[in-house]
Amino acid sequence: MHPPAVLRRVRMPSLASLTTKFNHFYFIPLFGFFCWYGLLFGLVGAWVKDGHHTYPQYDELNKPTPLERIGVIVEPGFFISFVIIHAFVFCISMYLEFYHRRIGKLIKFIKPTIQTRLAYASLTIGVIGQVFFVVQAIVSTVYIHNHARAKSHYAVLLATFAVLIMISLALNFTNYYIMGQYYRKYVNGERWNKFTISFILKIIWLIVTIALAVTCCVLYVKDLSTPSSILEWCFHFWYGLLMLFWTYDLYPLTELRALRQSKKEKKQTLKSKLSRTWRKEKDGSVTAINEVNSSRSEDLSPSGSSEMNSPETNNKGFDYTSFNHV
């Protein structure tokens, strides 16, 4: 008979155990990048397929039609689904960076108290902004299909979402400024390190994003529909670059460099140990040979010194038969 099977408890892996030597969660913002632009190109394709016309029945006379309006009018289910996906990816990406710095999978915070508070504030405001974005997308869809949309509704949506997200990102970017300055001054003296490059690119992105959002809202309120719609398109296509920045941030570039450097140092240390061992063995063998030669010379010198110094032996040469050494 076969012995009874032993039941074993299967422990679910923790989030920390899912990461290997370094994290590979940079695929999450990269996934969000493709989802965001998939949403945008999908909306543009749906609008073109629908005849790229205006929608007076929904009180939408702008041309080109704003992407948000295309989503809630032409493909509401598709639009809301991808908005929810983006909200989750945004919040998860921000949390993963904080989490991996806390557990050491990424370089830890230099000033833990200040930077942890900045991270918490950034994450909280970002979550609120994304929840507001999702709720407003759903409410906007319901309003527009019931022909009950207020004229300033879209401007309020874009402005509120943009303000909350920009504050959240500004707090997040400040951590990179602190890290970049510290590494430039105290670690390796490298001015253009990963954190400084990331901070500068993000600040440029943030300034352009704020300018696009504010200008779009001002033109929309002033009934300049065409330039407002164009800037709205530009805003959404520009906004998606944020996911590339977070992919770069979560990619363990600095840590992989440190790993390669440590491997090189280990190889050099191994080579130096082997060379020292070889030199010691060589020096030991040479010393042993010298000791043997010196002992033989000491054995030879007493018995043959008198004969070698005599005139007879000098004339006859060295007498090998007088020694018993082999």
TrEMBL record:
The keyword Transferase does not apply. InterPro entries: CWH43_N, DRAM/TMEM150_Autophagy_Mod. GO terms for cellular component: endomembrane system; plasma membrane. The keyword Transmembrane applies. Residues 24-252 form the CWH43-like N-terminal domain. Residues 287-326 have a biased composition (Polar residues). Residues 280-326 are annotated as: Disordered. This is CWH43-like N-terminal domain-containing protein.
